[in-house]
Amino acid sequence: MGGNPGSKRVAAAALRLAMSESREDEHQLRRLYAEEGIRTAAVDYGGEFIPAVKKIIERAVVAAKREGVIRESHPEEGAVAGATHEALTQILPKAVGLNIGGKVGIARYHDHISVAVFFGIGLLHLDEVAVGMGHRAAL
Predict the structure, then answer these.
(1) Is 43 helix (H, G, I), strand (E, B) or coil?
(2) 37: buried, middle or exposed (CB in 10 Å: 19+, 13-18, 0-12)?
(3) Residue 77 and residue 70 in contact, taking contact as beta carbons nearer than 8 Å
(4) Out of 5, 37, 60, 131, which could bridge 9 as a Cys pair, Cβ 3.0 to 4.6 Å?
(5) What is the value of pTM for the model shown?
């Protein structure tokens, strides 16, 4: 896509990272997006959904700071936490009471911050898939 990446491009980057199947794929995507000026991070997670919500949000904020997606400031941390919470809220109806496993993708270009979650949801051998997306603006 030409021009400056906007919220749609940043959201697509977060989703592609969340859907990456290996660390190698993830690192390749992160290099590609870095060339476009999009800063990214990703976090793997698995476990029971309800107790995991707080841990997933915390890990997303920590990863975003560690990878330079955000600075250590209240508004930027809040933007990632809020976008992550929004994404998790979208998968709540499918995931409540069940185990999840997958990845959180975080992407930022200037004031656009997107967080995508891509999780498999398991119950015995009956697996479901869920995707959630959150977006915030941060200066």
Answers:
(1) strand
(2) exposed
(3) yes
(4) 5
(5) 0.93
For residue 46, give the DSSP letter.
E
- Percent helix, percent strand, percent coil in the chain, to nearest 5: 45, 30, 20
Q: Distance between CA atoms of 105 and 15, rounded to whole angstroms?
A: 6
Give per-residue pLDDT as tens, 51-84: 999 999 999 999 999 999 999 999 999 999 999 9
The secondary structure of 59-116, three-state, reads HHHHHHHHCCCCCCCHHHHHHHHHHHHHHHHHHHHHHCCCEEEEEEEEEEECCEEEEE
